[in-house]
Design goal:
By secondary structure, the protein is α/β, with parallel strands linked by helices. The protein folds into two domains: 12-34 and 277-399, Aspartate Aminotransferase, domain 1 (Alpha-Beta Complex); 37-274, Aspartate Aminotransferase, domain 2, CATH 3.40.640.10. It has helices spanning 4-9, 13-16, 37-47, 59-79, 92-107, 120-131, 149-155, 178-187, 259-274, 276-290, 292-296, 323-331, 352-356, 361-365, 378-399, and strands spanning 25-26, 86-89, 111-115, 135-139, 160-164, 192-195, 214-218, 229-233, 300-303, 313-318, 335-336, 338-339, 342-344, 347-349, 367-371. The strands form four sheets. Strands 2-8-7-6-5-3-4 form a seven-stranded mixed β-sheet, sandwiched between helices. Helix 4 (59-79) packs parallel to helix 9 and helix 7 (149-155) runs parallel beside helix 8. The N and C termini lie far apart (66 Å). The structure holds pyridoxal-5'-phosphate (PLP). Pyridoxal-5'-phosphate is lined by residues 91-93, 96, 119, 121, 166, 170, 195, 197-198, 218, 220, 229.
Length: 416
């Protein structure tokens, strides 16, 4: 007969089935990242005692000016640009608007080539220009979300004034063949802008290697503050400023400089550059830790490209699971992820990015995005995987047929 102590040492079935204690896991770094404490420390003096206007000639002003100069050098170093090619803006959205409208309003008329999966900062800007009389070609992407450079070449007309194709996609992580597209643009002498808001600091972004004439970046995707970003403009490229006012940012972006935020962006860029390899390896390790999900969960398919991708972005479709319900279920477990769906005018429309990749409405609604960050740990990934498998299993008890089917070459999520 078993002794009483032996029985007590055995966990009750309900206890052994119990999961680890709830963890808080933030996996929405493509939406925004937590501020790095080192960035905050660098910014603090400029939010308190060092309040001088950078245009003032006395010491307090000159200190602010020096801080801006240093930040400009730090951003330039991250992207391989000259300091005089970096212009501070209020963030990624303004940088995209400035780049595209800056060319369009200078030329006054013409044709723009872009893709169907750009961030709204680019897409809505192009749609606005279309309403103003410009012609825009929105290039399709393949199932992995890649633009074919030959499609860019074929779309170019004599009237083409700009090519705008993003680097890393915010929803699916797919990286576009930007360097190749840049070469085509160069051959035809057409300015080329790439929205690199998601890729800067995560994969190599060097303005010369990418053959870009303009690129956008944003501090809050880099563990810096919100509301500050930069636009790289290749020296010699003329564009029209959107704002009139003072002569700040060499008249490209007038307005008293947001010194503290600029300093924060500079520090964030510096940290991204100096810790680049280690951050990238960490991200790849975390990503591979989640990969067993693809085997464990039936009818589960990764969206986007397997190798040409941002290392920390994982977008997947779990058939017969509503993405929003999955997000809410995981939120109750302390896990923050997002859906690919954008809420527009009160109704949930399926992600236009996933639809452009060929997914049907149902599959797009069954997709979610995990975007990892440098503060995430392997332990967190194990917790997320366990909770994810559990949540999907439970939701499918209600929604899935007995024969759930499989994903593969002829995955029913796609429609031709
Ligand atoms: C690809 C891309 N471009 C532009 C932006 C806009 O940047 P910001 O939030 O700094 O305006 C974002 C933000 O999500 C983005 O992901």
């Amino acid at each position: 007969m078993e002794s009483v102590t032996a029985i007590q040492e055995k966990p009750l079935p309900s206890e052994s089935a119990q999961r680890k204690t709830k963890m808080e896991v933030y996996l929405d770094h493509n939406a925004t990242t937590p501020l790095d404490p080192e960035v905050l420390e660098e910014m603090m003096p400029y939010l308190t005692s060092m309040y001088g206007n950078a245009s003032s000639l006395y010491l307090l002003g000159r200190k602010s000016r020096a801080a801006i100069t240093k930040a400009r050098e730090q951003v330039a170093a991250l992207i391989g640009a000259g300091e005089d090619e970096v212009f501070f803006t209020s963030g990624g959205t303004e940088s995209c608007n400035q780049a595209i409208k800056g060319i369009a309003y200078l030329k006054e008329t013409g044709h723009i080539v872009t893709s169907q999966i750009e961030h709204h900062a680019v897409m809505h800007t192009c749609q606005r220009l279309e309403r103003e009389g410009f012609r825009v070609t929105y290039l399709p992407v393949d199932r992995q979300g890649r633009v074919n450079p030959e499609d860019v070449r074929a779309a170019i007309a004599d009237s083409t004034i700009l090519i705008a194709v993003m680097h890393g996609n915010n929803e699916i992580g797919t990286l576009q063949p930007v360097a190749e597209i840049g070469l085509i643009a160069k051959e035809r002498n057409i300015p080329f802008f790439s929205d690199t808001v998601q890729s800067v600091g995560k994969v190599e972004v060097n303005v010369h290697k990418l053959n870009v004439d303009m690129l956008s970046l944003s501090a809050h995707k880099l563990h810096g503050p919100k509301g500050i970003g930069a636009l790289y403009i290749r020296k010699g490229l003329e564009i029209r400023p959107l704002l009139e006012g003072g002569s700040q940012e060499r008249k490209m972006r007038p307005g008293t400089e947001n010194v503290a935020s600029i300093v924060g962006l500079g520090k964030a860029a510096d940290l991204a550059r100096t810790h680049f390899d280690e951050n990238r390896e960490h991200m790849l390790r975390l990503r591979s830790r989640l990969m067993p999900m693809t085997e464990t969960i039936p009818a589960f398919r990764l969206n986007g490209h397997l190798t040409e991708t941002l290392p920390g972005t994982l977008n997947f479709c779990a058939r017969f699971v509503d993405g929003l319900t999955l997000v809410m279920n995981l939120s109750m477990k302390g896990i923050s992820i997002s859906t690919g769906s954008a809420c527009s005018s009160g109704s949930l429309s399926p992600s236009f990015v996933l639809k452009a990749c060929g997914l049907g409405d149902e599959a797009a609604h069954s997709s979610v995005r995990l975007s990892l960050g440098r503060e995430n740990t392997e332990e967190q990934m194990d917790y997320v995987m366990e909770e994810m498998v559990d949540a999907i299993e439970k939701l499918r008890l209600i929604t899935a047929p007995e024969d759930i089917g499989a994903c593969g070459e002829n995955c029913p999520c796609f429609f031709e």
